[in-house]
Amino acid sequence: MPRYSYQAINDAGKLLKGTVFALSAADVEGRLIKQGLTLVKSSPIKQSKMAGQLTDGKVKPRVLIEFYRRFSQTLDIGLPVLAGLDENARSIPSKALKKAIEEIRGALEDGKTLYEAMKGFPKIFPKLDLAVIRIGEQSGTLPKCLKDMSDFLEWKEGITSTIKRATIYPCFITVAITAVIAVWVGYVLPQMAGLLNEMGVDLPGVTRAVLKTSDFVLKTSDFLRANWPWIIGLIFAFIAGLYIFQKDQSGGRIFDKYLLKVPMIGNIISNV
Known about the structure:
Elements: E1 3-9, E2 15-21, H1 25-34, E3 38-44, H2 49-55, H3 61-76, H4 81-89, H5 95-109, H6 114-118, H7 127-139, H8 142-198, H9 205-226, H10 228-247, H11 249-259, H12 265-271
Antiparallel strand pairs: 1-2, 1-3
Helix pairs in contact: 3-4, 3-8, 4-5, 7-8, 8-9
């Protein structure tokens, strides 16, 4: 829906400026009349594709949680839905969410339900959130549904953050140990083995096996250095293909099905 800037006069004769989403200039005037304003002039706001890409997209979970909680509180104290959206839009740091709220407000003024208005922003409002909002509207318990949803999303975000923090230290230790082993097998051990061979020392079988492994690693590293552009290209192609496959509806089901079967990871995802 296009966005218009306008100048209007209120009942006290004060000149006001603002922006509104509307289908046309006539629609702008109609929306302002409903607010008790008289339109002076309006003009469409041109937005470049690059600017649209910067403002559109997903919203951080913490911002969405705060929006649901504050929206619930404004409805609880008796404010109408439109007034609640206006109140929350002032304190939201996300430009994408602010833009979405403005368009949702316009859709509500056109007679749509909150569920129908929010459904037009699938990148911001997931299907689960929309389903809860729809139930809240139909049952007359929208404030409670919004509060319960914010509590659930906060719990989910807390679990996710805990898992991320818990994996940082093991990952660091794994990388450090791998680096130490790589230096030992790839550089230190061959140097010591050469010195011991010169001294005529008979090396144990385990040491000889480790040295053969070291030679294999060195040959592999030479191959990787010679062909690293192709290898990186194949890795990126594999990741891109997996991402596209996972985004497809049927592919996403297959991906999630096998992901849930992965030891430990599947159990964590199921619990979350």
